[in-house]
């Protein structure tokens, strides 16, 4: 449920134009249908082979350093605080680090393409039949292709947007909340930037039926509270977990555990990533309210009556 980006065994790649250290933070934190990976890209190197996803939307956030977003032959300058959205089956893409390297987070879905592998026939069935190559690994093939051609940087498209360029959805005494990925054109998923001031709390405790969320603490720290639901208010007990910079918190759907953040004395800055499924239902245990996203409907549930621990 909680992992820190300074822990765990990273994957190191240094092949031709590829050069990065990758930490699979989503797997470490126990995410299910989505994930997040931290890429620390060496100066002048690529973060991945040039590729395009056919079933997953990807969102990247630049933590530090600078570099170029390579998209279908054009390049665009990127800097800390930039959010880059790659929608399904659009631009081919990769990132190239500048002289000081590039540190970024890559968020994405874990799509289920329904593929079947036939090992003796050496084919994969994905609606069509695809021959399975016995040749070199894709990273070896990317290395053999050599360095990318880098034209002069072009003006940035609408899918690259800095968090400071977006008007906050909320800004007040308790903090600041910026919806950035949707402004950059994301469709299936979202990435928001949040700041909680010292000892202030975030959104009310809530849990989702279909949406999965991942939170990354960028600075400061605080407390994660988990509220069981539904339970009678008089017996409601919660868990508390200390969180700090670099922590990644996974909140899969349908756990019946609502989550709630409170900042510590230094405040807390974090990213919130999640799916945007129209069939999601969100429950708020403290108010006993339920929200149907696809219908835009909020209702309050009748209190449960318990007799010997069983609802009537």
CATH class of the largest domain: Mainly Beta
Q: What percentage of residues falls in helices of 4 or more residues?
A: under 10%
Radius of gyration: 22 Å
Give the overall pLDDT as a whole number: 92
Please give the number of β-strands.
25
Low-confidence stretches: none
Strand percentage lies at over 45%
Number of structural units classed as domains: 2
The largest sheet is: 8 strands, antiparallel
The name of the CATH architecture of the largest domain is Sandwich
Give the class from helix and strand content and strand pairing.
Answer: mainly beta
Apparent shape:
globular
Order of helices and strands: EEEHEEEEEEEEHEEEEEEEEEEEEEE
Report the CATH superfamily of the largest domain: Jelly Rolls
CATH topology of the largest domain: Jelly Rolls
First CA to last CA: what distance? 33 Å
Can you tell me about this structure?
This protein folds into two domains: 2-111 and 123-160, Jelly Rolls (Sandwich), CATH 2.60.120.10; 164-311, Jelly Rolls (Sandwich). It is 4% helix and 51% strand. The strands form five sheets. Strands 1, 13, 14, 15, 17, 18, 19 and 20 form an eight-stranded antiparallel beta sheet that branches. Strands 2, 3, 4, 5, 6, 7, 8 and 12 form an eight-stranded antiparallel beta sheet that branches. The model has no long low-confidence stretch (mean pLDDT 92). The chain has helices spanning 25-29, 138-145, and strands spanning 2-4, 11-15, 18-24, 34-41, 58-71, 74-78, 82-86, 93-109, 116-118, 123-126, 128-131, 160-162, 170-172, 175-179, 189-196, 207-208, 213-228, 239-244, 247-251, 257-275, 281-284, 289-292, 297-300, 306-307, 310-311. The chain is mainly β and 312 residues long. It is built from two helices and 25 strands. The radius of gyration is 22 Å and the shape is globular.
């Amino acid at each position: 449920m909680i992992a820190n980006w300074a822990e765990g065994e990273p994957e190191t790649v240094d092949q031709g134009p590829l050069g990065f250290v990758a930490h699979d933070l989503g797997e470490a934190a126990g995410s299910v249908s989505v994930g997040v990976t931290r890429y620390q890209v060496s100066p002048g190197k690529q973060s991945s082979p040039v590729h395009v996803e056919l079933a997953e939307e990807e969102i990247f956030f630049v933590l530090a350093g600078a570099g170029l977003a390579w998209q279908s032959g054009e390049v665009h300058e990127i800097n800390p605080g930039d959010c880059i959205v790659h929608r399904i089956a659009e631009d081919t893409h990769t990132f190239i680090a500048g002289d000081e390297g590039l540190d970024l987070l890559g968020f994405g879905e874990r799509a289920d393409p329904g593929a079947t592998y036939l090992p003796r026939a050496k084919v994969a069935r994905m609606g069509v039949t695809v021959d399975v190559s016995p040749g070199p690994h894709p990273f070896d093939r990317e290395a053999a292709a050599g360095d990318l051609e880098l034209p002069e940087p072009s003006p940035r498209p609408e899918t690259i947007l800095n968090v400071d360029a977006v008007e906050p959805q909320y800004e007040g005494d308790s903090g600041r909340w910026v919806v950035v990925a949707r402004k950059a054109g994301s469709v299936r998923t979202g990435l928001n930037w949040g700041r909680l001031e010292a000892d202030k709390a975030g959104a009310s405790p809530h849990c989702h039926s279909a949406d999965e969320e991942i939170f990354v603490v960028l600075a400061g720290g605080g407390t994660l509270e988990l509220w069981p639901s539904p339970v009678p208010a008089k017996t409601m007990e919660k868990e508390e977990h200390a969180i700090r910079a670099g922590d990644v918190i996974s909140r899969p759907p349908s756990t019946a555990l609502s989550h709630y953040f409170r900042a510590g004395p230094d405040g807390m800055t974090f990213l919130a990533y999640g799916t945007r499924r129209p069939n999601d239902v969100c429950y708020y245990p403290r108010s006993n309210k339920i929200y149907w996203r696809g219908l835009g409907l909020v209702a309050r549930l009748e209190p449960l009556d318990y007799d010997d621990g069983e609802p009537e």
